[in-house]
Amino acid sequence: MVRSLRVRSLAVMLAAALVLAACGEESPDAEDVDVETEDEVTDDDPDAADETDEATEDESAAAAGGIEGCAPDDLALLNAGQLTVGTGDPVFPPWMLDDDPAGGEGFENGIVYELASVLGFDDEDVVWVGQSFEETIAPGAKDFDFAIQQISVTEERQEIVDFSQVYYQPDKALLALPDSGVVGATTFEELLDAEWGATIGTTDLDYIEDIIGADDVAVFDDQATTFQALLGGNIDATVVSFPTALFATAAQIPEADIVASLPADPNDAGHGLLFEQGNELVGCVDQALDVLIADGFIDALIEEFLIGDADVVEITE
Hints:
By secondary structure, this protein is of the alpha/beta class. It folds into 2 domains: 74-169 and 269-306, Periplasmic binding protein-like II (D-Maltodextrin-Binding Protein, domain 2); 172-266, D-Maltodextrin-Binding Protein, domain 2, CATH 3.40.190. 40% of the residues lie in helices and 13% in strands. The chain has a 4-stranded mixed sheet. Strands 2-1-3 form a 3-stranded parallel sheet, covered by helices on one side. The chain has a two-stranded antiparallel sheet with strand order 4-10. α1 (2-26) crosses α11 (297-306), α2 (38-44) packs antiparallel against α3 and α4 crosses α10.
């Protein structure tokens, strides 16, 4: 499914390129276009000319990459001149492809490399540090400048670490095998008797306990082990983000189904980049994220990697 999504995205881009090419062939000659030149503006309004010069300088600065006061030499980095980024070990599609953060293919590493470019780093200046999710969200000193690992911003976590602004808010999905007792459920009450499992330290676990209201949820060290428990019949169901569920049921655990979509968790603000508490880098990273959001870069990544078709029941209560 993820592969077909990426092909669809490339097809759209190719179609757009053809349209632009066609428009270029039919465009009028430059001499036929009535355009107010910079000289005309200068003659009529010197102040406007100054504003034009300033705008041009701003555009040039943006094109060159970097944010004022946030160049690599200005930043309090773990290692000078190097952007050290924490993530999972291993990493999984569609967030990162081929278990290779440095490959740059995927939603999360796509964000990181573009963000790094905005701040003025080259790709080779980005260094990845892999660790468990529990290690990443724990309080204390960090061996990275920031981490990206589908980390949800919650009030509880904000007491021990710092976050960037939220850049993505996924829906939740209910995963189970076709013969599970949760299949056909339309309310949370019908889910309570199921044998649940989830990955330790995740908002997926919090969702099962706090929103669905299940007791005695089995806890596993990582997502892969949670999926193995589901396939082995040790648990009846689990909850994961919808993009994760789309890929998992297409490639990792095709025996399982997305049984239902679930309402958003009011305690989960969405995904943010995680920093050691008090890290001065947050402000510059937020400005870089502003650029990625404003120019549609993150929306394009969402369309390419995280959106799919799934005709499932929606449980709302």
